[in-house]
Specification:
The protein is of the alpha/beta class. It has five helices and five strands, in the order E-H-H-E-H-E-H-E-E-H. It has one domain: Rossmann fold. Helix 2 packs parallel to helix 5 and helix 3 runs parallel beside helix 4.
Length: 149
């Protein structure tokens, strides 16, 4: 099983950017956590980060051609603005989990809109970096159930 983890703008600045909201752990720690968790689950997990909307769309499309089984995506600020990312996820029909480190439901009004949520099979927020691991767990179970059908 292969899961692609996609991170949008400013997530490479974890540990630096607003540590009171996003925590003090940096992006390398997140990558290490994901790698270790993937090993425990017996799956392949590949991480990608870009500050550019088109690169995120390209990576979603690439996941289709690689026959990825699932996507975990934290589109960052593009969550609230990008119909292009929404359309890319709809286009590829790969089970996708939306992840947010903070609980965006308790933040600014503009963060209450999530375009990607319309195509996601689940949203996980407010669990810090561990939300990525929860998303991976969910996808392993979700995909496993779909394969039984």
């Amino acid at each position: 099983m292969k899961i692609i983890i996609i991170n949008g703008p400013n997530l490479n600045m974890l540990g630096i950017r607003e540590p009171g909201i996003y925590g003090k752990e940096d992006y390398d720690i997140l990558l290490k956590m994901i790698g270790e968790h993937a090993k425990k689950l017996g799956i392949e997990a590949e991480c990608f980060q870009s500050n550019h909307e088109g690169a995120l769309v390209d990576r979603i499309q690439q996941a289709y051609f690689e026959k990825a089984d699932g996507i975990v995506i934290n589109p960052g600020a593009y969550t609230h603005t990008s119909v292009a990312i929404l359309d890319a996820v709809k286009c590829v029909s790969i089970p996708t989990v939306e992840v947010h480190i903070s609980d965006v439901s308790k933040r600014e009004e503009f963060r209450q809109v999530s375009y990607i949520r319309q195509a996601a099979v689940k949203t996980i927020m407010g669990e810090g970096l561990r939300g990525y691991l929860s998303a991976m767990n969910f996808l392993v179970d979700y995909i496993g159930e779909k394969e039984k059908e």
